[in-house]
Amino acid sequence: MRKLIVQQWISADGFATDSDGTTAFFEFPDYNQGWESDQLKLMESIDAILLGVNTYRMFLDYWPDADPDKEAIAPMLNSTPKFVFSSTMVNAPWGRWNPATVVNTDAVQYVQNLKQQEGKDIILWGSLTLCKTLVEAGLADEFHLTVSPAFVGTGKHFLPDSTEWLDMKLLKSKTYETGVLSLVYKP
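Below the sequence we write its predicted structure tokens.
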């Protein structure tokens, strides 16, 4: 069975966004130095990207036209099939690349079915509402947390408020020169 990997950038105090809903805390110079090569390896292990509508819109503004000389993951990200979960969208274009598939049915059932299909692993980026739904349903197989060296004080978490105690096993950790910390957990 395919794994669902939840990958989130979070602040050092555990928030996925700041109080304004932005992610400026991980948009600093050279934030991805060293991290990008590890991200390329992760991209090789997946063949499906899950996005909520807000993350899709944010990504659409940047990734389809991202310069591969500046963003090494851009070609892989752009060519990987994407699934956008939305009850209002009909189409999800992706620049000159193949459009994303719009999913307007039950997200839990859809992802359960997707995990049963043949293929590589599946990744979910950002998409806090979708993330909370899938985590609450017990569908996340791994959590890849990229911790930014910043405290934001308040903001939004990527886990549902109703999450009960969940013991995690640390599979991997790595610290980058920028102070970014990469943690991989399995429930």
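Helices lie at 35-44, 53-60, 74-79, 107-116, 128-136.
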